[in-house]
Amino acid sequence: MNDQTCLPIVSERLVLRPFEPSDRPGYDAYHTRPEVYRFLYSPVPEGDTLTEQFSTAMSSTYLEEDGDTLRLAVVRRDEPALVGEVLLKMANKAALQGEVGYIFNPTYAGAGYATEAVRMMLGFGFRQCGFHRIFARLDPLNTGSVGVVERLRFRREAHLLQNDRFDGTWGDEFIYALLATEWEDREGLQ
User: Fold this and answer.
1) What distances in angstroms separate CA 188 from CA 10, 99, 128, one per listed residue?
2) CATH number for the domain including 182?
3) What residue numbers bound the domain in which 55 lies?
4) Each residue's pLDDT tens digit, 4-40
5) How many domains does the structure of the chain reveal?
6) Helix (H) or strand (E) holding 9
7) How far apart (Å, rounded) are the C-alpha atoms in residues 49 and 37?
8) Which one, of 78, 87, 84, lies nearest residue 114 by Cα?
């Protein structure tokens, strides 16, 4: 299901590629920010935890079994700055279901990089991986993230009330999804 020969994925402004050791400073620049981790429901990683997390990101390059995650660095073509990352997870191989996720450095917010990178990852997921459905799970308070999926015309399928808890605080979750047929119908509009 996974075709690594299609990597990197390149657009006019961005390159999606596997993480490299030289990405570590850029990775740390946003993975150490509390405002980024507020919506990831985990504490900000430090020390060995951050090192292990980066190592996992560098080795997350296959989608073969349920739970496998492909993590790609998002870099600008004109200046190879790491602006964030996108991921595609094999949620259910038998049902051809994938989950898309993304984390971006707030320093680069407002330039449309997240929307562009997620669009690129959707194309990869539907065309190269053969997914039937790709979904995203988000905190409704993360308006930037909600904006990304809504700009890409995902359909909101669920609003789960108080289904997650972090640091003693309950949080809701939106589930958005897009079918391969919807993607194909809209592809000409992008």
Assistant:
1) 18, 23, 18
2) 3.40.630.30
3) 4-187
4) 668 999 999 999 999 999 999 999 999 999 999 888 8
5) 1
6) strand 9-10
7) 14
8) 84
